[in-house]
Amino acid sequence: AYRVSNDGKPTKFQPPPKPVIIDRKTQKEESRFLSPEFIPPRGRTDPLKYYIERKDMIQRRKVFNIPEFYVGHVLAVTTADPCASDKSKRFVGICIQRGGKGLGATFVLRNVIEDQGVEICYELYSPRIQAIEVLKLEKRLDENLMYLRDALPEYSTFDVNMRPVPRMAHEEIPVNKLQVRMKPKPWSKRWERPKYNIKGIKFELPEHKMKAAQKWSQPWLEFDMLREYDTSKIEEKIRKELSEELEK
Amino acid sequence: MMPIWTKSGEKHAVTLLKVQDCHVLRYVSKEESGGKTAKLLVGGKNVSPFSKPESAHEIFKEAGVPRKQKVTTFNVTDDAIIKPGTPLYAAHFRPGQFVDVTAKTIGKGFQGVMKRWGFQGQPASHGQTKTHRRPGAISTNKAAKVYRGKKMPGKMGNIYRTSFGLKVWRINTKHDIIYVNGSVPGHTNCLVKVRDSKLPTYKDCNKNPPFPTFFADGDEELPEDLFDEEIFQFTDPSIKFA
């Protein structure tokens, strides 16, 4: 039945406004970035060792700015070199992998210069590094881009004199869903196998080969409880420590 | 283990050793021990007193100290004798000093001759019947016996070994940590004995160490971190070559 309003005319039923859930918690988590080398690996080492290493890392970060970057970003790194004229070297490349924990954390930059692929592994906390600039911010579909070695060279070439692309707003690093085309097989690793779990390659292999690669899948791995390493609480503590120390 | 950088930009790997509740337990004179020098018994790491009989606690009760997990002897000259019961700290050592580190190596259990002694073994194919990792011949015909000490399979590891001439790069006085160059025998969190180096090249390297030891009386106030001269400290800006 229609409701009768104050005027006396029958009005159509207005449903109540739908509740809008504002996820404040998830928004906060995404904006806080913790560099992966701060998270201690699972093991039987004394946590005091990680605490002392973190103090050194924080000390270095106070003096030298290490920007937030992920695998897939294009970085320019200037290092001090006694042999070069000008005593400094600048290298531009895409970050393919970030490895190591603590002070020995490394990242590998790849570029193709004059038709020769070059990869340089830099240590984040090495005192030789004089500047790290992020030229292009973009995440890729995978966390390890080692397959770029077997991809066509156009995907690894970046202009050495590239200008830094300005970041639009202080939110959400864009994810580049680029599917990379590969050189003909043989590759350095069998990237089609499920153990690498690569989503960023456009596989142009015949269907029976893709099916044969699935033979090496280990579907029980994601349910293995002994492999679980929940880092949320550890990350919270380290973030608190970091923010307190960097404000001092 | 951690990396450490020098002022010229070179990287060295460093092991962290923590001095945990070390106390001097007893003084044994030269005549008592029958050796060339007097000895000091030192105990490390505190441990619960309930797992050993009362008779084992005598040394610790005399010194007034809880039961220690490990007791070692140090050969000591007469002018370096310390009263039993004094605690020993990491500040006993100074950066730039050289040190010998002794510990029990990681136990590998019963191992074959290839892993234990580094023998080459035999080829994998070309007609070898059931012989790929065996020792082969163990003696000659003329000897007509097997010599004592012949390298054969057996229990490997879990024995005391020393790495000599390790440089001390840095000392943390607040947490009692010694940063020692290179690797050290033993697994993580194992007990380790640190001594001044006995190598002849480092005989004159100790320039004014705290003698007989560093007493935390409050007279000397050391900074929290003591660095060697060549270390790059993270408070400095990045290196620039001139």
TrEMBL record, chain A:
Entry superkingdom: Eukaryota
Family: Belongs to the bacterial ribosomal protein bL19 family.
GO MF terms held by the record: structural constituent of ribosome
Record flagged with keyword Ribosomal protein: yes
Species whose genome carries this gene: Sylvia atricapilla (blackcap)
First-listed, main subcellular location of the protein, grouped into a coarse class: mitochondrion
Example GO biological process: translation
Location in the cell: Mitochondrion
Descriptive protein name: Large ribosomal subunit protein bL19m
GO cellular component, one term: mitochondrial large ribosomal subunit
Chain residue ranges for the region called Disordered: 1-28
Short name of one Pfam family: Ribosomal_L19
Automatic annotation (TrEMBL), chain B:
Family: Belongs to the universal ribosomal protein uL3 family.
Gene Ontology biological process terms in this record: translation
Protein name according to UniProt: Large ribosomal subunit protein uL3m
InterPro entries: Ribosomal_uL3, Ribosomal_uL3_bac/org-type, Ribosomal_uL3_CS, Transl_B-barrel_sf
Native species: Sylvia atricapilla (blackcap)
Gene3D superfamilies: Translation factors
Main location: mitochondrion
This protein's GO CC annotations: mitochondrial large ribosomal subunit
Keyword Mitochondrion assigned: yes
Top-level taxon: Eukaryota
Cross-referenced PANTHER family: 50S RIBOSOMAL PROTEIN L3, LARGE RIBOSOMAL SUBUNIT PROTEIN UL3M
Pfam families: Ribosomal_L3
A molecular function (GO) term: structural constituent of ribosome
The keyword Mitochondrion is annotated on this UniProt entry: yes
Subcellular location, record wording: Mitochondrion
Coiled coil (residue ranges): none
Alphabetic keyword roster: Mitochondrion, Ribonucleoprotein, Ribosomal protein, Transit peptide
